[in-house]
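Researcher: Next entry in the queue.
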Amino acid sequence: MTKIAGYASLFGAADLAGDVVRPGAFAAALLRRGTGGVRMLFQHEASEPVGVWRAIREDSRGLYVEGELLAAGPRGETAGALVRAGALDGLSIGYRPTRMRRGPRGRELLELDLWEVSIVTFPMLPGARLRLIETEDVMAA
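Model: Structure for this entry, 141 residues:
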């Protein structure tokens, strides 16, 4: 099992399309769905989840996630091997905007219906990255 953590979204940072997520955008979805209702996918492929998110929360920086990649099925094995090798470190959110407004360069996303966070090769938000968590770090926390 591979344990990972990182930021799936950063508040105030424009993604490659110019969209900017504002603080509080995930609050309603997280309250409604809970951590268990947000899926961990590989490259946004909904047919085969690759793990589980154990913690998802907003903090002052953005949407922080912690989870476990599971070696169940070919996608899970592939995703875990690529993350462990350092070849894959991007995160990307799957959502539907429920409240937004047009900004000067793109959309300001005020409320999002979050349904998944994917491990990806090229995140739309370049700063959305994951890191491996060592077992000792998890036990010490």
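Model: Residues 134-141 have pLDDT under 50 and may be disordered.
Researcher: Noted, moving on.
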